[in-house]
Amino acid sequence: xxxxxxxxxxxxxxxxxxxxxxxxxxxxxxxxxxxxxxxxxxxxxxxxxxxxxxxxxxxxxxxxxxxxxxxxxxxxxxxxxxxxxxxxxxxxxxxxxxxxxxxxxxxxxxxxxxxxxxxxxxxxxxxxxxxxxxxxxxxxxxxxxxxxxxxxxxxxxxxxxxxxxxxxxxxxxxxxxxxxxxxxxxxxxxxxxxxxxxxxxxxxxxxxxxxxxxxxxxxxxxxxxxxxxxxxxxxxxxxxxxxxxxxxxxxxxxxxxxxxxxxxxxxxxxxxxxxx
Length: 276
Hints:
Layout: H1 2-9, E1 16-21, H2 33-40, E2 44-48, H3 65-78, E3 81-86, H4 101-115, E4 119-123, H5 137-154, E5 157-161, H6 166-176, E6 181-186, H7 188-192, H8 197-204, E7 209-213, H9 230-240, E8 244-248, H10 260-275
Parallel strand pairs: 1-2, 1-8, 2-3, 3-4, 4-5, 5-6, 6-7, 7-8
């Protein structure tokens, strides 16, 4: 559903916006994440649905109307937009096998509708690695078809992150067959796999990528990363005609990985110098 993503950008002049992840700035579902995001110099924030563990669904504080209102009020007060809602619990849990997956998707979509958030992030994670576990494909495709129908009715997009290369992701999306299931692209995946980041972006094209995690693995800041040429990335995205949120997830300095302000302000400043 490209229209849902475009709607989130309608009437706004800036082609690219820079966000941080509340989980990674150590503010998971905390109201203070908005002030810190503003201090870091970003344009917005990716909120998390909360922890999962052995629960039937996410530990989602945003399910409470008063909490949601406080978050929306703080977003307006600080000018920090909420760009997406992340289901990071699936990094470690199996989307293919978890019996309560549909309730979890439904809870996420309900929160999105209540907060006017247009993009959800769904990582298929280690247990949903289709490159290593191709036998999971039928179950994952079936569940994503259902999730796609649910998202389409809600007028939103679910962006999935896989371990596949771009050609395989195109085939996966075709098999799912839902405009409401797209790719949430992560720069670290092709870089880690030794693939051409720019070619992967071009293969997927602007209509299949709903949002981007614009960082690499931890080790160095983005500006010091010799295998990630951000000016070239911008040129590739410009040439594709893509626009949207670039969300800073990692690329923390290995010498000081827990220094949130130092790491994320450096990466935010660098990204804005390139994309703004």
